[in-house]
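Running this now, will post back.
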Amino acid sequence: MHNLMKTPDGFWDIPELFYHINFNRSAGSKTTGLMLSSLVFSNDVQVALDIGIFNGFTTQCLGWSMACNAGPDATLFSIDIGEVCCKIARDFSIPIDHRIICADTMTLDFEKLLDGKMLDLAFIDGNHSYPGEYNDIAKVKPFLKDSGIMVVHDYNYGLPEVMRAVADNFDFSKYDKFIIKERGNSADIQSVIIQKKS
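Update: finished.
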């Protein structure tokens, strides 16, 4: 069994992050994982939301980065409609307040779920249909802190529904938009990072 390392203040040490996250993935997935970890550290993320657990990679990246950055008081909400995906997330045992919700975001009450918490970071990678993507963005956006960041995955011309849902939810005269292309991914997959202008 791995000997868990903590700093004197009780936070997880950075090497712990790389022990727990399986980075043996495609270059594109690594880009997304490292981007999320960087956003957690550079923006002092305490509360985050991950829609679309799938194989759990982004959940691991967010959760362990938050454990290293904020310690056990950090909160991560991981949501997926599939029970198998939720089970994967439950098996991670990330040492933070990790709430795994197996539900359809079309009917999920985010106000009740978040119970007064505001989000530092939201990662949206769920239903890629226009209604599904629009719903996720529109329901999560009111719960972003003023300095909060939303990352929408699969923002590319192969999925115009995702791009349209982003455009229909944000007035880019009031928000900054940064596009991150996943390195080495032949499918031209990219993420868009959105944050309110200061």
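Residues 27-42 form the longest helix (16 residues). More later if anyone needs it.
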